[in-house]
## 1
Amino acid sequence: MNQYCLKKDCKELHAFPHIVEFAYKKVNAIQFDSLKKEVSAFLRFYYVIEGRFDWVIDDQVYILYPGDLAMILPGQSFGGEKDLLGIGTINWLHLKLKQFDRNGKMLMGKWSRLSDREANTLGRILSFNNTPVLSRLKEAGTIFQNMQNEFMNQEIGQTVRVNQLIDELLILSARHLTRQNNSRRDFPQIFMKLEQALRENLSHQWTLEEMAALVGLGNTAFSEKVKSYTGFSPLNYLINIRITEAIKLLKKPNVHVTDIALDVGFYSSQHFATTFKKLTGYTPSEFRKKHIPSSDENL
Amino acid sequence: MLGSTKGSYPTFHAKPDYSEQDPEQIFITMLYLLKIFLNEKIHPKKHDVQCICFSSAMHSVLPIDKNGVPIGNAMVWSDNRAKKEADELKESPLGKELYYRTGTPIHAMSPLNKIVWLRNNDPGRFSAADKFLSIKTYILEQLTGEYVIDHSVASATGMMNIHTLTWDDDAVKYAGISKDKLADLATVFHIAGKLKPEYQASLRLHDRVKLIIGSSDGCMATLGAGVWGDGKATVTLEESGAIRVVGKEILQDEKQRLFNYLLAEGNYVSGGPTNNVGSAFEWYAKQFGDFNKVYELDDCIRNLINDAAKVPVGSCGLIFLPYLQGERAPMWNANARGVYFGLNIKHELQHLVRATIEGILYAFYSISKVLEEHRIIACLSANGTYASFPVWMQMMADIFDKPVNIKKNSGPDSVACGSYLVGATEMGLYKDLEHAAQKVKLQESYHPQEQNHKIYMKHYAVFESLSLKLHNEFKAIADLQHDY
């Protein structure tokens, strides 16, 4: 069989409005313009079963071999080098997500068993480890094969099974991504990247699980490594950064204290005031008054 | 010793050659750690805290506005962006004058050159700055309200005259600023004002607690390593390293290769810094280490050192130039790069490991040779992370042909020890720093082995020759690397 392609609105995809395209294709000859550069709003997966492919993802060239999985995020461009698809055999899946923005806020849709929080974390992992090619991911090939069998055989439980497989593909990709990118040898470097992600999204209520997932470690291992490297537990280190940013904002006279509390990630200005006073001995307003003599008392 | 705690904050590299830290983050991290430490180890035992003595890294520059608010991040010691400014000054007659007056080598690390860089490249920040502080000055000001800088940190700014102990007019003028933009100078024993009542409350300290300004990490480490008087030198082996001596005289080096920083009481810490110690070895471990059997970098490092110990002295004729991040003393060449020289078909990874360690130690040895043009060094006192490896210490003893002493148990590190000695001296427990230094007990000794020393010296000759010969090639390759 040379080709099997399901496109949106075909009867096999009736129960799967989130699947825009699912295909298997074997290419034997060069075809011009077979893969022109395109940006799409969908999450696209391409798995190489056989052959070698030269693709351009987000304006960078990647060479993919059998077992490699390309993952193109919504908004990224994808095309073949010289607009050619290449020779070999591939699978692909285009997925429509309920929500995705480049900061990592991602929601799947009702079909997925992932909770909103998990989906969000997954989205952050994809943005944090921004590498479009996952190498040597044979399990992805198995997932695609199973999905194809489900579509072809139409047996009982098919809907549940296909959605399960898509969840599995997402989870597999996220885990592999963190493992591939975060070599265990260089925790300081990984931690620097995490710090940056925390600072860029400080208003988010980061949990230990989310931080650990971003770097691909289990909760305990992550906590130990952070404590040993920084001297603080992950959550205390986070408070450390929140208070640091709060100080900077307090020293800017025209930002409201309430806004500061939420901007730096405290869940209320009361919580902010209590934590700030406990560490520094000042309430936020007192601190501002003492450090900026000219500040407006009403702020 | 009742206890110790440590924590860290990141260094940002927004652009190549940039090394910055967030001053508010440094302050909060310090405050938080101090609070945790006091609450866990000190207050439960109802100890009465009499004084807190400070130490900090050198060469930092933090501009603040008229309200005392930092304008951007602080540039730290490893920031290299002021290369051009340093070269310009070094080639001028004023440069040599300033080196002799301030004791700080003319290099990108020097705050003098960093301020000139700001003037040339960030005029907005430069003109908005009401003061140019060191990180320690900022921290102390946050705690007490006083802008003060100790002689040790000040003598590493390139702007303090180490003979008169005042800010140097020419240096300040060259920087394009005035003296009122710098903090007030004080001795290391100076009490930096009273701790603000809010911090007293948060840290649960009484208002009589003395905040002693203290010294720089280099000077503290030297004091804490028990180095005092003639014949002794201290070798610090951390990410980077230094070799230092203490004396009442300033070392006048014709070629401006050494620093002279004032500690106190007319005692100067002189020596040379090297860039690539732990950082070079960790680079090697990450690239070539075997991570199949271990997960942690530290375990890998330990295994590599054990492998190196089994290789013959001289690594079977393999030389490593460790200048992965350029080099400061004695060459002061930011373009210098790493080299494995002499590879033949029989060399294996184990030879590379040993050659790497030997190269790092040869770099220290090259600084000591310059120091020995001015002072006699009879023995070494080693401290820092890599001083805990017997293989390294024995190799050092053999290369230098001098005994190497270290503290028996890893107690508090030398910087903390030095800080204690300064604080204790201020409180009157010791008559002066000389007596305080004598309290440092060094125990384990490594003795040089003559036959090894001879072999090392033959290899060192090649090391030294190459380091000098490759000057032009270093420049060419550094230029090529600029685009990556």
## 2
Amino acid sequence: MPDTVLLDLDDVHVTFGTLNALDGLSLQAHAGQVTAVLGPNGAGKTTMVRCCTGLLTPDAGSIRIVGDAPGSARALAEVGVMPQSAGAWNAIRARELLVHLSRLYNDPHPVDELMELLGISHTARTAYRRLSGGQQQSLNMAAALIGRPRLVFLDEPTAGLDPHVRQRVWQVIRQLRDAGVGIVLSTHLMDEASALADHIYIMDAGHVRLDGTTAELTAKQSLEDVFLANTNVGGVR
Amino acid sequence: MSIDFAPRPAPASPATRLRAQGALETSLMMRNGEQLLLALVIPIGLLVVGFTVGHRFGIGTAGLVGSVLALAIWSTAFTSTAIATGFDRRQGVLERMAATPLGRTGLLGGKAVAVVVISLLQWLVLLGVSLALGWRPRFEVVQTLGVLVAAVLAIVCFVSLALAMAGTLRAEATLGLANLVYLAGLALGIMVPPSELGSPFGDVVRWLPTSALADMTRAWTSGSQDLSGLLPLLLWALGSALLARKVFRWTS
């Protein structure tokens, strides 16, 4: 199962005016593995996720999600996405959002069990805008998982979380991996990548500068040192 | 606690997804106080004022009912949709939902369902209030069919214009501009018929979608026939849909 390629980006290019947001990005994510994508702000991680969900169309290169084109109905059903800027309608309540999302699938996870697992059961009737940042993060993660996806994109899933909640999220990520789900984890936290990732890609200026297993990359120096040596401030060349 | 996370992705049928999204969008629009003000309070207020003191200013009640019905579509399909979509986009709702099996088409479909459902409810309430105030309808069959087609074309046109605005401007700019355009629409055809504006200005205004729709609803509620708005509405609907498709951006 770990050899099953769920996400395959090959030489993907995206430009915004004169900015090369993605400049020949190639990477893969496999079933039953956590694939960490590290990079400074502006390296192109969010653009990559938006290409993978069909919100942006690359100027060149190819992307396959479980063999399908991004944005196709089949591909959208296969993936769960927790965008960095995930939001919700102001008036919607936490449980209401998850119940609504669950109606888009034939065989969703039970909403209440998922809320309990992520420690947000007590927020069920709270309006999204009144949730704390950490509660919103946990709810956004539940939203990404509700459809029993094969591939999950988690864009900075623990940013701003306290250590208790962070450990809970890590535990869920490990459970997902053990169940055969492929996870693409975008994070700025080196300890998070070291603790969770099976394979790490270090991105800078829209392409991969270095990749390898966690053990390979950290054999001689810490992941943070590897990261600093291979990236520039703000993802610029 | 643990959950069996073994992947079993299976999207619901397109009809189920559209129904769910349409129901949620409708519910959210109806919970929004400002949108209810636009959708019902202002049109009902205009009806009550028009029926009680309008005769002193030469306002015919049959034409007023038609104007208010056009106003209902204008406020819901354009103003409410623009404002709601602008904030959806800024708050990342569009980005989240476009990445589900709903997709972009389903997301727009849900908005369309909500606009149609709310417009129908508005028409039922406003026609009921008009009857209660003493208006007695004399509908022509041909005009009735023409008005139904005009309403659909107007909804396509107004929603497309709303998306074009909300998909390019910041949410706050959309909020301000949508309200300004709403007021301009009242003066340019919705509440003030182009015939009242004189030539040549009125002749130009007659080709605006606001005028084209309202002239037809006014003729309908007055028991006369006027299908002249269908061609402008068709052209506006096509043009606006193409514009929205070209300029709309899903992320802020």
## 3
Amino acid sequence: MRANCWYGTGNVQVVDVPEPKILNPRDAIVKITSTAVCGSDLHLYNGFVPTMKRGDILGHEFMGEVVELGKGVNNLAVGDRVVVPFPIACGQCAQCQRDLYSLCENSNPNAWMAEKLWGYSPCGIFGYSHMLGGYAGGQAEYARVPFADVGPMKVPDHLDDEKVLFLTDIFPTGYMAADVCGIEPGDVVAVWGCGPVGQFAIKSAYLLGAEKVIAIDRFEYRLQMARDKGGAETINYEFTDVHEALKEMTGGRGPDHCIDAVGMEGHGPGLAGAYDKVKTMMMLETDRAYALRQAIMACRSGGTVSVAGVYSGFIDKFPMGVIVNRSLTLKSGQTHVHKYMRPLLERVERGEIDPSFVITHRMKLDDAPDAFEMFTQKEDDCVKVVLKP
Amino acid sequence: MQHNRNDEWDAGRLAATLGWIAVGLGATIAVRKLMGSTTDAEVAPRRSNRVRIERVTTINKPVHEVYAFWREFQNFPRFMRHLESVEVMGERRSRWRAKAPAGQSVEWDAEILEDREDEWIAWRSLPGSQVENSGSVRFSPAPGARGTEVRVQLQYSPPAGRVGRGIAWLFGEEPEQQIHDDLHRFKQLMETGEIPLSDGPSLWRPAQPARDPQEIRNLAGVRAS
């Protein structure tokens, strides 16, 4: 089968690989009908995530048709059309039973690697480094889905792929980022980063009752999407002092909740931006946290800073004093997709949101290398690419 | 298999990078932690030639279920990476066979010293075994209905020569890590009924489907379930 594989920093190639087979009783094989490139794939592409190996199949946002089932999967049938959550979760460990599926204690066969870096291991993730399981990803014609009795969710035929594909990751990710803030009436939410997750965080904050959402980015086409599709007010940080602008827009209080939808490859203007760039290049710091620092500084006293963007290692100049002295709450986590998938599908079915609004490019799986390059360079006003095998 | 060490994040580069990060932060403590600090298990053989290991895990199952599964020693090769077979020869005796390098195997007989249902099992190898070893496992309910805490404690004296090398291999270069990983598999098996299989176990092969599933099982040291 054809699959998009990682071959080093800035190098992905679509090559022929063996088709997946059932390895365990709770496995399923899914014939992929739609798959997407995630912003977090760019962290792999740009070499920010350790334990990648040449030939790793990428992709953790995918859906398709069940073509084969292990003998332990009784709730699915061959022919079912399913969306597959990006975290792999067993459903039976203590974390899964608390609905913290991305912390599944059993789904990472390479847990020891993650334990060395993070103390304990989170769940395994499709196509996202050996440290997170070494699972072949879904930018391919077929994928093996472990614990298929727990993860994949059947979707109704009348909703086409583009309306449900993002239930696998970015819609729940943006939604969880807003959900953990505990938004109350009158709250203002600021969102750093208007990529796909940021766009869903904006929409979700409104769905959860925010009074106003303010979106921050430097690409005008993304800010325009945030205004037109998300109803957000916007700040372009290249031309505006974000801290002062947020104060001005919130009556001097600061946003009640600040969402970092940027992650570890943030860009910062001026001296601080250059500082992080040099430090990450010298491997003295692994993650650039410009957006996160700004979000913490800007947040209303007693407010919430919610981190949806991916960080993998260490950051520098973390303003802990702000968190302590102004009683901020820091929330984060890889998305517990299994918890959010069904309620969000219901919102799609009720017409409260059409997640396909983020799609700017539809391409063939074979064009994945072009898609990665375009997405990472922010060319052609790219926000979200959907690939068809 | 294609290799390009410059692009690839192998364990060495990960370790080196983490080292640099820690040096950059001036955090030598972090280095020690990330590199794995010197443990008793590593020091012990040099001092007394005796290795002692203790590991603990929590399993989201009631005590009696965990105890019962453990007490069926035949189950051990399903989660212990290098174990070939366990033959139960009577109420208290069993014969253990483990894989050793170059198609060799090592064997020893063990006897149960103490067996308290749902609480505690202690065993030791019988005199004259190729591998002198002993150990115990304690089962106790975790607080707040969090399942069962399983504490394993074992010690062995690696013999000299070929068999000694076999034993070193059996427990890996880091015996504590090996037992930790085996306990993780025990937990996976108990909680989910299977041991999840990576397409790219460790960093031995890329995360791509294998032509032959057995290749994956062999690399992972897991039997077909």
## 4
Amino acid sequence: MDQKRLELPQGTLDLLILKTLAIQPLHGWAVSERLQQVSTAALQIGQGSLYPALHRLERRGWIKATWGASDNNRRAKFYELTRTGRKQLEIDTEEWRRLTVVVGQVLDMA
Amino acid sequence: MLTDIWYRLQAIFRRDRLDTDLDEELRWHLEHEMEKYLRSGIPEDEAKRRARLALGGIPQVSEQCRNSRGISALTELWQDIRYGFRVLRKSPALTSVAIISLALGIGANTTAFSVVNSLILRPLPFPSSERLVFIQPAKGTTHSFPNYRDLRDRNNVFSGVAGYRVTVMGLDTGGSSQRIWGYLATGNYFEVLSATPLLGRFFGPAEDRVRGGSPYAVLSYGCWKTRFGGDPGIVGRTIHLNGLAYSVLGVAAKGFQGTELFYWPEVWVPMSMQAQIESFSWLDEPATFNTMLFGRLKDGITGREAEARMKPIAADLAKERPRWNDGLQFKLARLGLVGDTIRGPVAAFTTGVLLLAGLVLLAACANLASLLAARTADRHKELAVRMSLGAGRGRIARQLMTESLILACAGGIAACGLSVFLLRLLSQWRAPLDFPVRFNVEPDWRVFLFTCIVSISSGLLFGLVPAQRAWRTNPNPALKGMPAGSSRKWALRDLLLPVQVTLCCLLVMSSLVALRGLQRALEIPLGFEPAGVAVAGFDLGLARYKKPQGQAFQRAILDEVARMPGVTAAAFANSVPLSIDQSSMSVFPEEVTDSRPSARIDTTVYEVSPGYFRTMGTGLLSGRDFSWQDDEKSPRIAVINEILARKLFGRTDVAGRRFRGPGGLTEIVGVVQSGKYVSLTEEPRAALFRTATQTYDGTTVVIARTSAPESQTAGGLRRVVATRDPTLAVQGVGSMSQMLGFAYFPARAATVALSVFGMLAIMLAATGIYGTAAYAISRRRREIGIRMAIGAQPRQILRVVLGRTFALLLAGSIAGFFLGLAADPLLASVVYQASPNDPWVMVAVPLAMAAVALLAASGPARRALKIDPIYALRQE
């Protein structure tokens, strides 16, 4: 794939993480893999920026972390969405869709 | 929201745990990423490298995760504080100088503010005290009792009006009588104050009904503790005041001292016992103005409204009793400082002191700012390294500001300790009289809050300068090893030295002016010679001597004292000038028979024995002194002072003329020189002396002029009295100069305060000048070396290097001098006879400043000249 990877606008990383975790609880690495798969590696998400975002979301109470046993029985930190997180996801998704519609309208002006 | 706070708390208190978890989480990620590459066949080393590239370095990612914990501000602050402590510890000299000068500067402000707070700002300790007001007449502070009764009954603005009088009583203590001070108070006194007693109860209007038949007393907390040992069964006990039995109804709460802030009475007695406590009754006398009044305003009525509504009452009273109430007015003032009479001077003095303390603090801040700025320049290498490692300018500036704030807080804490100590001393100071004056200036929460605000503001103020310098630091030249220097000719920092010098000038001027003022106050002719005079006082009325026995006692004591070794003259009087006990009455010219107020002359009155003027050293201008032959059978006579003679007749040779005095038509037998009678700063005042052989007063002060040491003679006086009557209480024993101490107190207090500030200012200016000069020289060491190497003379070098410093000094001195002249009116209000236009001061101040500057700069200057050129060139 020779196309240049798209840079994420500010704040959208949080939205993507929330959506990914809405499907099922995952640990950090799995979130990174899933995002890569789904976006077919078109998004430029530094793996390093994932973790600060996860911690930030944890601080704000939208996701919560539990230490559980992973495959090969080692300790791993799993993240899952909280109730407030779910609500926030809805709000943010709605906002995003509206934003894209409006921007699209402006761009479609003749 | 709560989750947020909980998370942040965990981040603070379980930091290690979180860090280990984070580390584990990231390593886990790395492992899995590595596995991913391994599975697709990449060798282990390459897989590790790619994994690491994908994630980024663990330390960097950890750092970012830690930042997202939301406590980075706190962590950075904590780091700054710890670093600041380390830096400050490394230069103990600068740190101690800084803390000491801050402690002195902030401490001065705290102490001054506490005094202002206790005397002016703090509300009186009574419920709704803002409704309490002091009712003041047009002139003076007291009213007649009939006027009080009429005001109380006719007004509709107060829920209660009460009256009180400061008075001295004799408490019987097992055989002898002790002088104690207290209040005569109307029945509703405690009611109007809404005070609550500690033990028992207060007397109320019901206990103030019967004249002479209301023998009740309320004791103060101090009296109860010291005189009665805190006896829990005190309520109901009987005490004897002036020979009569009084029943103790209760004890006032600790710290309750009635309606005057400076006066700490021991007992309250109902006003209807007035005739029993004092020797003459004035409760029905419209001509005697002895009562101070206060009231509690009704809800919703303002002071101005009340004053307006009292105007018609005053007008009515003036119509009903025109002889005494002509021109009567009722004004309102805050309660606690004898209405407006001492409130004004006290407020002016304390605010003046506070302003000066503020100036000293500003000078200290300017001093510190320049010292710290100089040090910042020395640290430029350290700051440059930090900047190149990634610290932002903001972070560095914050670091320096934190250091300044640490110094400020340390200074503030030291200041608190210092001022608490000073204030305690002040509160425990007792006036050198038996009149109970005390200043309760202990600090409360307002004072500590003030200290906090002042400390932090000072820290921000002087911290701005080094922080701003750091902001401007360019890391490159520093890292290359070049000395720091700004390219601009004049920086804002250069203002600091002139500012310090200006403030110092101002403060030194104030001190000198005050000292001169005091010197002049001490030289004012008092109208008598206090040196070499011993006095002792006793009260025969309190000890229940009747007039014939009293007179005989006085005469006998006088004869014995005159025979004492060393005594060259002796006399007695009912009071001496400038003591606390002064009486005044009205006199009229002979031809005025209707006592109208326009012809009235207010006069200070004394009852003196023959020989008084010789003993006191008061010059006789015409006529003669009293003699023992002038007794009650002779016509009424008096000696008057020059002022009164001029007021009555316009001349001083008026022996033989007459005037209408307190007892009727009186003949003048002599005229004496005028002097000071009530206070050192009074306007020239009329005085009248009556002879004790015609007017008896049991209150006696024995005066002896002696060639022996005064204290010795004073002891002798006490012994003479004790031999004749061992139960008679003698007080006010000592030299006349000691007794005058109280009169000089305000001037002395002002001078001490100003001198202290002056010295502080000089110290601060000297340190500032020294620091600036030293810094200027050290910066240009290389340049000095080169100049010396090519043959410059010492004078030239000094001119180049210190020229700027001295130019700034000069500018500051001139500014300070003119500011001082402008501040003359303020100073004059605080210190009697102060005037900076005094030629002595105008010469002394510039000289003093020049001396300080030369002395302070001489050290660095000498060092500059000793610089070895080769050594200097090799440096840097």
